[in-house]
Amino acid sequence: MTIRSILIANRGEIAVRIIRAAKALGIKTVQVHSAADADMLAVKLADEAVDIGPPAAAKSYLNIDTIIEAAKSAGVDAIHPGYGFLSENAAFARAVADAGMIFIGPSADAISLLGDKVAARSVAAKAGVPTVPGSDGRIDDIACARAIIEETGFPAMIKAAAGGGGRGIRIVDTMEDFERQFPLAAAEAKAAFGDGGLYIEKVITRARHVEVQILGDGENAVHCFERECSLQRRRQKVWEEAPSCRLPDDIRTALCESAVALAKSVGYTGAGTVEYLYDEDAGAFYFIEVNTRIQVEHPVTEMVTGIDLVQEMIRVAGGERLSVTQGDIVLSGHAIECRINAEDPVKGFMPGPGTVAKLVTPEGDGIRFDTFLYEGYTVPPFYDSLLGKLIVHAESREACLEKLERALAGLKIEGLATTIPLHLALCRDEAVAAGAFHTRFLEPWLETHFTPQTPAKIHEEASS
Description:
The structure is a single chain. The protein is of the alpha+beta class. It has 3 domains: 5-104, Rossmann fold; 142-202, 2-Layer Sandwich (Dna Ligase, domain 1), CATH 3.30.1490; 207-447, ATP-grasp fold, B domain (D-amino Acid Aminotransferase, Chain A, domain 1, 2-Layer Sandwich). It has 16 helices and 20 strands. It has helices at 12-24, 41-45, 64-74, 90-98, 108-115, 117-126, 142-152, 175-193, 249-265, 298-305, 309-317, 397-410, 420-427, 430-434, 442-449, 454-463, and strands at residues 5-8, 28-33, 48-51, 78-80, 102-103, 156-160, 169-172, 198-202, 207-217, 221-233, 236-242, 269-279, 284-291, 334-341, 343-344, 350-351, 358-360, 367-371, 386-394, 412-414. The strands form 5 sheets. Strands 13-12-9-10-11-14-19-18 form an 8-stranded antiparallel β-sheet, sandwiched between helices. A 5-stranded parallel β-sheet has the order 3-2-1-4-5, with helices on both faces. Strands 7-6-8 form a 3-stranded antiparallel β-sheet. A hairpin with a 2-residue loop joins strand 10 and strand 11 (236-242). The longest helix is centred in the middle third of the chain and has 19 residues, at 175-193. It is globular. The protein starts with a strand and ends with a helix.
């Protein structure tokens, strides 16, 4: 089926991104929005907009019945879920199909299988992908969990089986800590995801977070190489790059091939990401999960491969085969993405929504800023703090860091606090420049390198 019209069941910068991809393909766009997002840039760019309810996400962007009704009323052929919200909700994907429309993403069955972290571990193991040592399945009994912990040793991680996005995770260092945290983790998982199931994984102390971008059409699958996502705060990604600067070629090949094997084993359709932990000391990698959607950090992959991942998702959903073979996909240079959030890094990353008094974006070859901001726009306080993503591309990582620093210095978002000073500081850090970081690097770094005086110093240096 040829897709002629799409409803975007999301908001913010990803909604703008999907609209632009759809328009490039000559596809009509319908943007849903809550009452708080009536002035959102995506609403202005779309061919049509539909109000789906009050600001609370549960009553708007997470309301399956309302979104399906909006799509039916607009007469669209397909729905793109973006990331977050309902993007990995199998019930939503099934409801879209049952309503006679196309869900732009994998099937509901694939989402169910890979969205459950325990089931995904089993799929990965069957596909020959190494997994982090831990429990073989869901654990609902603390005695079973205790036995696993005794085998894997400390530190260990208690994870929600239905979790994602870094949520529902607790790290324990002693048996006493484990005994206290296990029932709390179960209750937290139940409240957050409606499923109290848990599983156990050994903590790789100095792990790097490396993920592989996959594309599938149900019959074939390819990889678009890997991304490095180790700079994280509270398990939320802050800075991403492609390719990983510390990954040996043989590990890169094995890691990417394993992601393709996993995708083919489930007949994967659309864009997805297979996430791994890489133990640099041991030279080993381990599967952790699959994200069955487009990722926030997809632009760095687009920059180094030249593939428009969102357009590819739409084409494949419409019944086309992948437009590229594995041999067509080659790496070119290096790309880095900084997530620009409405948070004040000096004040403990306190959220700072407000009105954009002035917006100046850097321009030039290899510079991209994905955002939904415009001057005079008031950022609502009800949703994620992501304002946009600054992405730069250059022939080498060293040149990329230099270009990124200039681009960050030229990015002005006045009227609200942002994380721009944090990224400028990271650009100038020797360990970051050397690629000598891991998933536990950033938080202690913030305590010693980012003081209340840092932002003024950074901007003074940038203007000199």
